[in-house]
Design a protein that fits this description.
alpha+beta, Type Iii Antifreeze Protein Isoform Hplc 12, five-stranded antiparallel beta sheet, two-stranded antiparallel ribbon
């Protein structure tokens, strides 16, 4: 009986440290205003910085400063008057990727290399002027920030990749782009 009493006390103490906070119900792109449909309430043992339910009115109508991911707790620093994304020196490049041009389970946050597919090249307007164009364009490294399903079976899907601005034009000019997921070990080799 003593063990039960101690266990109940420990559980009650743990639950009392929980608070109602806001969590995202869906993805919200940077720059979009938050609405009540974007948020729901969860009870968690939260650290400082997450938005408590009592502050809901303070975030509704404000813009997402960065892309927000469904299921994550909302942080006070993620909302503001304007988007802060992409960061300086970086650009988001939407790519039309054909069937088989990327892994079927490709998701946001994956580190990738964008390469020209079979028969693909970089247009002359995007050529950098060095001899690498003769053997094909170098891969462009980046992080996936969005994956849009194809509108029809066998259609292209749009994959948005965050890349260094200096490489954005080269990535956008690749014909038949292919997306290759790279591991931490693979990044060192590229």
């Amino acid at each position: 009986m003593l063990v039960s009493a101690v266990g109940f006390t420990a559980i009650a103490a743990d639950l009392s440290g929980r608070t109602d906070v806001l969590v995202l119900t869906r993805d919200v792109p940077a720059g979009q205003e938050l609405t009540a449909r974007d948020l729901r309430t969860v009870k968690v043992a939260a650290e400082a910085g997450v938005v408590p339910v009592a502050d809901t009115a303070n975030v509704l109508g404000r813009q997402a400063r960065v892309p927000l991911v469904a299921g994550s707790l909302l942080s006070e620093r993620q909302v503001g008057e304007a988007a802060d994304f992409p960061p300086a020196g970086w650009s988001q490049v939407p790519l039309a990727v054909e069937v088989g041009g990327s892994p079927p389970d490709l998701a946001r946050g994956k580190r990738v290399a964008v390469v020209a597919g079979p028969g693909g090249s970089t247009s002359p307007a995007a050529a950098s002027g060095d001899d690498t164009e003769a053997v094909g364009p170098a891969p462009v490294l980046g992080t996936v920030t969005g994956v849009q399903a194809p509108e029809s079976t066998g259609g292209v899907r749009v994959v948005t990749v965050l890349v260094e601005t200096s490489a954005a034009r080269r990535a956008a000019a690749m014909e038949h782009p292919r997306i290759v997921v790279i591991s931490a070990k693979g990044r060192d080799a590229l």
